[in-house]
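// run 5 | inverse folding | seed 20
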């Protein structure tokens, strides 16, 4: 059964981070994700707030995430990962998000460096019982020079690393912008999918304000065996108390019987083979 979390950085911004935990728990979420700058956040207090509400701290990220990427030298990023593992352990998070970085020049090809860095940090992830989540970003609307901008490349990298402690955080906003084909790309690679971000496309708002049919995507992923967390990572466009509840209600419709019958029972998205043209 899918579980639902929410990125608490972007909601209830007039409340402190610990009070937000109770607010999203009261709305019905199973967990929280803490991204962006977490300077000043006490991981012990965060865990206590989550435990008292009966929800989980699902994932967090490095401080200075956009700069300390896997495309940087190992000696530069290692201290940031050491600190992040300690923070994650203290707050109870089981996953940490990292990025692939940017191309420093038109000829720059950091793929091998990303693989090497993942392989060198993976033993620490394994020892701490924390999954590294590699997230790809779009270079269509933002992040112009980002290197890792597709799930295809991300899964290729993760298969080279070949560890259950290195998976992908798939963001529907970023990946719809750069490649689309959400189910064709995800279903053959479920073993490497560690977390799913549902976001409105193209404006980072509520997931129901989107060109992506999120309940359908979630329904197909769950049928195929994905039972991890789905994070609502978005910026509300109206009253936050109402918005977070509306979003959770919307995502939960993936468990409802579709209104229209699926006459094609034989569809198999896992057989993702390119069309031969010409």
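// decoded
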């Amino acid at each position: 059964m899918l579980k639902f979390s929410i990125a608490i950085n972007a909601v209830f911004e007039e409340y402190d981070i610990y009070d937000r935990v109770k607010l999203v728990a009261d709305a019905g979420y199973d967990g929280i994700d803490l991204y962006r700058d977490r300077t000043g956040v006490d991981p012990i207090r965060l865990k206590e707030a989550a435990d008292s509400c009966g929800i989980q701290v699902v994932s967090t990220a490095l401080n200075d995430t956009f700069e300390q990427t896997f495309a940087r030298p190992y000696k530069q990023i290692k201290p940031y990962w050491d600190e992040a593992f300690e923070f994650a352990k203290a707050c109870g998070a089981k996953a940490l998000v990292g990025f692939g970085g940017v191309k420093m020049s038109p000829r720059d090809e950091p793929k091998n460096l990303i693989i090497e860095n993942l392989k060198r940090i993976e033993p620490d992830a394994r020892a701490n019982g924390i999954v590294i989540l590699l997230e790809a970003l779009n270079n269509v609307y933002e992040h112009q020079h980002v290197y890792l901008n597709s799930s295809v490349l991300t899964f290729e990298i993760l298969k080279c690393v070949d560890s259950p402690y290195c998976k992908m955080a798939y963001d529907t906003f970023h990946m719809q912008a750069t490649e689309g084909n959400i189910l064709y790309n995800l279903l053959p690679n479920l073993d490497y999918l560690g977390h799913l971000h549902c976001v409105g496309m193209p404006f980072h708002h509520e997931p129901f304000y989107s060109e992506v049919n999120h309940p359908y995507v979630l329904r197909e992923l769950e049928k195929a065996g994905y039972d991890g967390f789905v994070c609502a990572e978005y910026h509300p466009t109206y009253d936050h108390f109402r918005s977070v509840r509306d979003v959770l209600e919307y995502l939960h419709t993936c468990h409802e019987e579709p209104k229209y019958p699926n006459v094609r029972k034989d569809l198999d998205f896992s057989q993702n083979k390119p069309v031969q043209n010409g």
